Amino acid sequence: MAGTPTFATPPGFLGVTRRDPSGGIAVAGIPLDIGTTNRAGARDAPRAIRAASRMLVDGAHPGSWVDPATLPIADIGDFGIALGDIPGSLALIEEQASALDHLVAFGGEHGVTLPLLRALRKRVGAPLALVHCDAHVDTWEDNFGQAYAHGSVFWHAIREGLVDPRRMIQIGIRSPVQRDVWDWTLAQGVTIVTAQDFHEAGPAAVAAKVRDVVGTAPAYLSFDIDVLDPAFAPGTGTPEIGGLASWQAQAMLRRLKGIDFRGMDVVEVLPAHDVAEITALAAATMAWEYLCL
């Protein structure tokens, strides 16, 4: 056991006190809540995820044996946003992300992924492969009449050429969805692994499918916490039953070592609806798993 108790860990993610992101991986919060979730409150997620990460600082990652304390991680705090101005906030997020080589972002709701992909697409110079873990396809053209929101992020990403839909895989899908939205998504070339598919195939088979779809392309991981069943992540805006267990998501992620990931986000944590911090801890752990790849 470490000499410092977990409750005394500094407030940065994984206790990180470094603030200079140059030459390493930047961790940043994006406290944006567009307000189209059924239960609002995602703006407070970065703080909750950082706080829960104190449970992960005592030793190396079992399996990879990476000690996060040895990684070049900097917690640069939270991005600035334009309160009440969605296009303005998206532009600000893109501008701030553009200055970072490799970003691990804590939403906020899923709409924050769009400007992150815009910034990364410009840096990479080609459409990205995408590993998208979620209960929802998020390929609606709009969300309750609003063009930019958490349910339309990947409709925009595909239409703008930010991602290559033939290199895009969605994992854990299980929410109600209109047939035309489903058919449009598949017609673009997206691979969908439903939650039922996942349960029947298992984490190893799904990880192999991810590798097959992504190939050697530069890739991005977007992890909506509602991919987990509400039993494991009750603190989220649009919970759907029948989701992945925490161990299933971990087992899949641990098999993705070697994919050319250029960044990731964890989104849709709502601390006000959490129970005993288990959703925030799940989110922090998924980011930790990513870093330990």
TrEMBL record:
This protein's cofactor list reads:
Mn(2+)
Among the GO molecular function terms of this UniProt record, one is: agmatinase activity
Keyword set includes Metal-binding: yes
Q: Which UniProt keywords apply?
A: Hydrolase, Manganese, Metal-binding
Q: Where is Mn(2+) annotated to bind?
A: 110, 134, 136, 138, 224, 226
Main enzyme class:
hydrolase
What binding details are noted for the cofactor? Answer: Binds 2 manganese ions per subunit.
Q: Which GO terms describe its biological process?
A: putrescine biosynthetic process from arginine, via agmatine
Q: Which NCBIfam families match?
A: agmatinase, PRK02190.1
Q: Which family does it belong to?
A: Belongs to the arginase family. Agmatinase subfamily.
By its UniProt entry, which PANTHER family does this protein fall under?
Answer: ARGINASE/AGMATINASE (PTHR11358), GUANIDINO ACID HYDROLASE, MITOCHONDRIAL (PTHR11358:SF26)
Q: What is this protein called?
A: Agmatinase
